[in-house]
Design brief:
Elements: H1 14-27, E1 29-31, H2 37-53, H3 61-65, H4 67-78, H5 101-116, H6 132-147, E2 150-152
Length: 161
């Protein structure tokens, strides 16, 4: 059976993200790309934790002020993200296979923490002057991007790309 196409999702709250994760976990799903739900949750957890605690690196100022700023502004405007290579430190370490409830639960706990986050993003590696509310929306758009690669069992498979 061919893989279904990517779904277009648009989350505006962490609770929206959590509801979709739980729906996929409860109903089961088909992948449209390589990662399973555990791996996607691990990646989302790493990116949210890094935003709140720091990643330990920053892209050069000229990239943050030009190309990355343009890309992120486009993401905010369209509420869509294109696929791009994942840097090694943000790639999941979990092997493909059955989902791991512990990893998924950790991601949900981090989403809840991100909903309340009001700390400094001064050292955020990709953009300067990012406010916590904007960072959260970026995280929800990022989650929609990754969770869009799953189609819940019983859900329509003729979905737009």
């Amino acid at each position: 059976m061919p893989r279904p196409k990517k779904r277009i999702l648009d989350f505006h709250t962490g609770e929206d993200v959590i509801a979709e994760i739980n729906r996929l976990r409860q109903d089961g799903y088909r992948k449209t790309k390589n990662w399973n739900l555990t791996q996607a949750c691990e990646h989302l957890n790493l990116t949210m934790t890094g935003g709140m605690e720091g990643f330990g690196f920053r892209l050069p100022w000229i990239l943050r002020a030009t190309v990355i700023k343009w890309v992120i502004n486009r993401i905010f405007r369209t509420r869509k993200m294109s696929s791009a290579p994942t840097i090694d430190r943000l790639k999941p370490k979990t092997e493909d296979g059955p989902d791991d409830d512990g990893v998924i639960d950790d991601c949900i706990a981090t989403i809840r923490q991100a909903e309340r986050f009001d700390g400094s993003l001064e050292d955020y590696p990709f953009l300067d002057n990012l406010k916590p509310d904007d960072w959260r929306q970026f995280m929800w758009i990022h989650a929609a991007h990754h969770l869009g690669f799953f189609v819940a069992n019983g859900e329509e498979t003729r979905l737009p790309v």
